[in-house]
Amino acid sequence: MCGIFISTGEMKQREMEDILDCMYHRGPDEGKSVLLKNVHLGHRRLSIIGLDDGIQPISNEQKDRWIVCNGEIYNYKTLKADLQDRTTFLTHSDSEVALKLIEEEGPEAIQKLEGMFAFFISDEKHNSFIVARDTLGIKPLYYGADDEGKLVFSSELKAIYQVVEEAHEFPHGHYYTPEAGFVSFREVTAPDVSQQTERIDEHSQNIREAMEQAVHKRMIADVEVGVLLSGGLDSSLIAALAKKKQEGQYPLKSFCVGSEGSADLINARKVAEAIGTEHYEYIYTEEELQEAISHVIYHLESYEPSLVRSAIPNYFVSKLASQHVKVILSGEGADELFAGYGYLSEFQDTDKLNQEIIRILNTLHNVNLQRADRMSMAHSLELRVPFLDLDVIKTALDIPASLKVQKPDRIEKWMLRQAFDGHVPDEVLWRKKAEFSEGSGALDILDTHAEQVISDQQFEELNEQAPVELRSKQECLYFKLFKEHFPYPTMLNTVGRWATA
């Protein structure tokens, strides 16, 4: 997990250093930039794999191809074994495998990569380059053009706006070359529903196998891996599977935050005791929650109220976890894949349900996944999302609507719960869904605070300034703070919005 910045034009070294400093939180272990003939590459590193020799930018032997990468390639060992006879590896880094794979097989080989990534490969020999972002946009990437029309790329908007006046989000599941432009290398597609079965035992087994494999992949690291544990279904399942797959000398560490007496804290303790993790928790005060809002919006780069609300507990739990581990597993994606949202019960037809699931999966890059990346990286912590493994997605889409959607006599995510019956305590497995901000006790505090600091007159004035309707005083407060941090008009175009505030 890292921060990258690239300019295809000339850039002063001091300017590059200032930009990398503003992303120091994404990679406090090492920072380096390399000025090549055609491009300036910058990188901040959080060392996870190849601790001793993985500093980036990484070159090939001839030093005519270079890579900077943010993320992890989970199948890098398999790919490396396949490439070993054809090329020479200079490091133990998983990012070098992406460089060598594309050097040997071209950009079409990007679809062989399993993981979360945003990378730039400079091809000095042919005066060209390749930029790519993973299938769902788990890792962030933005681009824009400077005053001379040269392209720049960055992991965060706050860095790119130091150079450009208008930035855009790089499309997920695409690569870009100057010759071909944007090319889609992979997208999530719906299966043939005529081949689906309603056999519960078969689907349960498929879910368990896919999830166990997804968690196992995401345990790979040269540092300690922990789990976020809110006490809800999704994080509890990830924690239980991680405990089962864990190897090495350290106990699995789990982390939870909340206000005094909140449901998340109580349920997380139950799960931690049941599965045997070394559990850590932090109880935040009302004052701490209010004080964190501005910091959260700065790192989140959004004012969307649902996102900010859920990001604040994420901010605290990432801070807690970063004091003990460098990598954390989270339960993002389960609600989308297993119909955890109430409105999905409207989709009784499997084809229509899958199309809606795919639609919301393709919006995660600038809502839930933006929150997950930014809040963890604010504290130099790598966050991994096993539910969004491509095999898990395929497995979930193979389940018919009749077994997936919520019904009057059936709780949401019933099929997922059924698959793991007996793996976590019943009171957690069958606990009704709650928003992270609700379960952590943050929701009421934030509502009250916004009412106190935003007057009715301010509400009207801020609504006149905003490019969209601000739906609540909470949203007004967050918009006000966003504008204070980011006075760039075009940055408002990158803010994703949920249907409800």
Question: Any chance you could write out the topology, listing elements then pairs?
Answer:
Layout: E1 2-7, H1 13-22, E2 30-35, E3 40-45, E4 58-59, E5 65-73, H2 76-83, H3 94-105, E6 115-123, E7 128-133, E8 142-145, E9 151-154, H4 157-160, E10 167-169, E11 174-177, E12 181-184, H5 200-217, E13 225-228, H6 233-245, E14 253-258, H7 263-275, E15 278-283, H8 286-300, H9 305-322, E16 327-329, H10 334-337, H11 350-361, H12 368-377, E17 382-384, H13 390-397, H14 401-404, H15 414-419, H16 426-429, H17 436-439, H18 442-453, H19 456-465, H20 473-485
Parallel strand pairs: 13-14, 13-16, 14-15, 16-17
Antiparallel strand pairs: 1-3, 1-9, 2-3, 4-5, 5-6, 6-7, 7-11, 8-9, 8-10, 11-12
Helix pairs in contact: 2-3, 5-6, 5-13, 6-7, 8-9, 8-20, 9-12, 18-20, 19-20
